Amino acid sequence: MPEPTRGTETGAAGITVAADYFQSYSVVGLLAVVGVLFVAVAFGAGRLLRPVVPTPEKLLTYECGVDPVGEGWAHTQVRYYVYAFLYVIFAVDSIFLFPWATVFAAPGYGATTLVEMFIFLGFLAVGLLYAYKKGVLTWT
């Protein structure tokens, strides 16, 4: 019978039990504790070393460089969200197109993936045509 490797024991039934199993988790736990301590020390040092001089300008709410004047309620046009939504749709579609292009060259997947991708692109074209007909893509 071969000798068991270091850190393992072989029982009577021939099952190998790893003795160092929990030691590997202790290393991960130690690194997590060191990481948390590093962040805590950095924040504590920042709090102790920074100058604290509150002024009225520092206590104002910062809103992208615009002075907070008037109400906190602002109207935003919906078209910005529509453009962002269209961007997200086409960004996700490009994520789906890349794996298809890599699988398309593999033997045995050619015709099936080609038909599936044209169906997928057809749905995208219908959505884009709908957005165009609704006037979403006109800026004025």
UniProtKB/TrEMBL annotation:
So where does this one cross the membrane?
27-49, 80-101, 113-132
This protein is called what? Answer: NADH-quinone oxidoreductase subunit
Top-level EC class as recorded in UniProt: translocase
**What's its catalytic activity?**
a quinone + NADH + 5 H(+)(in) = a quinol + NAD(+) + 4 H(+)(out)
Report the GO molecular function annotations.
Answer: NADH dehydrogenase (ubiquinone) activity; quinone binding
Family, as annotated: Belongs to the complex I subunit 3 family.
Is Signal found in the keyword set?
no
Supply the source organism for this entry. Answer: Streptomyces scabichelini
Keyword entries, A-Z: Membrane, NAD, Quinone, Transmembrane, Transmembrane helix, Transport
Q: Name one GO cellular component term.
A: NADH dehydrogenase complex
Asked if NADP is a keyword of the record, the answer is no
Q: Recorded E.C. number(s)?
A: 7.1.1.-
Localization per record: Cell membrane; Membrane
Q: What does this protein do?
A: NDH-1 shuttles electrons from NADH, via FMN and iron-sulfur (Fe-S) centers, to quinones in the respiratory chain.
Per the UniProt record, the lineage of the source organism begins with: Bacteria, Bacillati, Actinomycetota, Actinomycetes, Kitasatosporales
Q: How does the record classify its membrane topology?
A: Multi-pass membrane protein
